[in-house]
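Translate sequence into structure tokens.
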Amino acid sequence: MSDDGNTALVGAPWKTVSGQTLAGEAYIFTRNGNIWSQLTPLTANNLAMDDRFGGSVTLSADGNTALIGADQKTIQTNTTQGAGYIFTRSGITWSQQVELVASDGAAGDNFGGSTALSVDGNTALLGANHKSPTGAAYVFTRSGTTWLQQTKLTANDGVSQSYFGGTVALSASGSTALVGADHQPSGGLAKNGAAYAFTRNGTTWMQRPRISPSDAATNDYFGSIGGMSADGSTALIGASGKKVGSNVAQGVAYVLTGLLTPIDSIGIYRPSTSTFHLRTNLNGCNPGIRCYSNLDVQFGDATKSATNYPIVGDWMGNGVSTIGLYLRNTGFFILRDQNTPNIPFITFRLGNPGDIPLAGRWTSDMTHDGVGVFRPTNGTLYLKKTLGLGYANFAAIMGIMGDIGIVGDWDGDGFDSPGIYRPSQSRFYLQNNSQPNGVIYGGQILTFGVACPVGMNPYGHCDLPIVGDWNGQGFSGVGVLRSSNGIVFLKNTLTPGYADFNFIYGIANDIPLAGHWITTGGAPPPPLNNLIVPNTNVPAATPTAPNLTIPPTVAAPSFDG
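Result follows.
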């Protein structure tokens, strides 16, 4: 049905048309007041027996574009390969615009068994749940009156006959897809089912984490039907075989909110101008391409910015990362509650001159990000839950002189834990402990990037660390900004391997940042294997415990950066 509720599309796949049994037909109805009228039935220009045209139907929001599936359609000699048909309306007249077929179509695919359209009707998604071996879904896009296949979607963990593509849905923009695979097994369960979300960046689609219910059981057939909200953040997914009480196969439906974990984007702080250059998503940031900021904020006094260090965090607890500065000559935080030039909304002191600022959510009782500092002279870190006057809640020793402190949600538990980056080894040392105290040993170790010569100041010369969730997987990945030339290398997983993608952003001496500058993010560009990451398991050295005393609070400085 159209968004205004005045146009309806109904399929009749078993209809005999022009003597062709089971050829199928679809019907358009329009409403004027309380009166509904049927327009001329829609049939395929090449209708034939057993096509089952109308087995799946969908309309664009304005009701002017219709997508109709015929999953039993014979294409050349391939029986039941399937097809989809686009019809468009001009006034009260409907005409077929194109027949859609998969580029790798084969007999028995059942392409067109499920269908979805974007609001504007320019993106179409068609399922082929019998495509060998696991099933598939196909994205087509329209430019003018021309339709082209954009991609084929499959599950990265799909198994034979999981019937991926049995149900499909699209967000309003067409940039988020939901695909069901109701026979997909997992955890030793057969046919419990799964659903998969995909997001589009330009013309490239990336799979999000697999969706499965917490109470999955054998023969649930989760993913047998599905729908998605306009923004792609909420899904309704059916499990037609779910047992409820003693009722076998009664079936249930699940409403899943927060479906798309926000994706971090990047930014840089340019000390020479005391300006934050932020990019609200990673769309178009492809290998070899220079990406530019679309949100620029000058904050502080550029004449004093050489002693300042940028810090960003969700200070207001609204899901948006906003800017701040740490005055490294005094140990003061000055934070903004919006990504706009203005005076700080809060100023307070934590740490010693020369410390590196940190931001994150350490405990479940925090409603916004807290702050912390890492002391590069002795490898000590201090974490504080609140913003304002007071002492650190957690203090620990991690690392050695010259390390750079970082934080991230390394295990996807929703809390940020500390880590350090050692420029001389281009190595990340990560700890899954959001409330550290005492001396921290061991942890996860990942070598990534190019090592900085011992004794060289990494700022402006070597790789600098950056941390964020680049693909909405629910946990932090890592990256580096090569500060000598502005190339950014990002990696989704915390395992040895190549960078997943890279691009050019910024200039020499810039300092990298990551965050959600707006309420939603974009998907990253496709991976490119061009940065070798060896795995060298060398434990992080730990110095003798320094004095853990935090300097007392003193009067806040005037806001001049």
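Note: The mean pLDDT is 87.
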